[in-house]
Design a protein that fits this description.
The complex is a heterodimer of chains A (about 375) and B (about 60). Chain A starts with 9 loop residues before the first helix and ends with a helix. Chain A contains 18 helices and 11 strands. In chain A, about 40% of the residues lie in helices and about 20% in strands. The chains are: A alpha/beta (about 375), B alpha+beta (about 60).
Amino acid sequence: MKYIDEFRNKNLLYKVLNKIKKITPKEGISLMEVCGTHTQSFLRFGLNKLLPSNIKLISGPGCPVCVSPQGYIDAGIELSQNKENVILTFGDMLRVPGSKSTLEKERARQANISIVYSPLDSINIAKRNPHKKIIFLAVGFETTAPTIALSILAAKKDNLKNVFFFSALKLIPAAMNYLVKDKKLNLDGFLCPGHVSTIIGTKPYEFIPKKYKIGCCIAGFEPLDILEGIYFLIRQMVEKKPALANQYVRAVKHNGNLKAKGIISKVFKVSDADWRGLGKIPQSGLKIKDGYSQFDAQNLFSIKRANEQTSKRATQCKCGDVLKGLISPLECPLFLKICHPDNPLGPCMVSSEGACNAYYKYH
Amino acid sequence: MKIKRINDEFAEVEAGRLKHTVNIQMLPSVKTGDYVLVHAGFAIQIVDPTGAKETLKLIDEIH
């Protein structure tokens, strides 16, 4: 078993599809896939063309780069202007437009900006460059949070004075709590993110079926996983028994990854956070705890983040509405006309987890 | 990716011809031969073969 081919088995795929077709009622059904990797898989494997046309899959806010507010990019760019600083980032942040520039353009203008694969790379770079301030743009959800926390702990262990983390880490269940209340969306179910759930487990989603009577299913990323997840959600709808289902049992345990959760709470505290398109959501972000504030870029550089209003004035991009699930990328007036991966006007077209990028590639 | 060799806090992993070194601090019980999910240079969870087989069996049976 290598956990890929088995979950792309054509016979099983058609079996599940037929069952979905059999139980799906005639009225329109709106399901949100919260995670950007689900959006990519769904379109890449052409599942949108196989499902009954009244099942609408809405892309959610599960692309970390996409939900980082424009002010965060601007702050990163501001930091890059200081010759003492070296900015480290995941690759997909590079081309996200700030209000005036991008990290990629600033790099072309000689700013010291590098792409790294892991936040742990910042430790070695800091050791090799003792006279530079190394700043990691810490963007991500619960999956990335323990990797940043472990890097901070490594910096503390090595007594490094020149490495800093600029946290824009966010929490998915808090965003789902915000979206489930949106009457315009009128969701019938959530396909919950697989990798986030490997860390947080199943419990943090339980309030959704209990409080809002909407089904949730944690699913993996292979086509069979996604179809099975959709089947569970529709069955819950038909039987009027909303619940939390876990389709991804091979990777998601009820309690998640206890070690990772412990590491997160050791280094971070939960705080309010700004989401692009969604605005400020209470208790939806992670800030570095006071005990580790020597590694917090926010405290040391006293960065003032631009507010959402500034971001909205600066662009006609509809990423905010796409992230909220209010429009599909195809409904954005800029999509493919002037906004495409070579000239992205918003983060949803830049990141491989962005809905617009997925629609451009596969739709 | 499959764990090939463990060296303290790190492990060599591979998937086909792709080889990487990842941090395994988040998985205290990981051992050689396990399949793991990798994110940003860290192994974040062990893939459970029993769970995988159960899912496939369930799909085959209920549909």
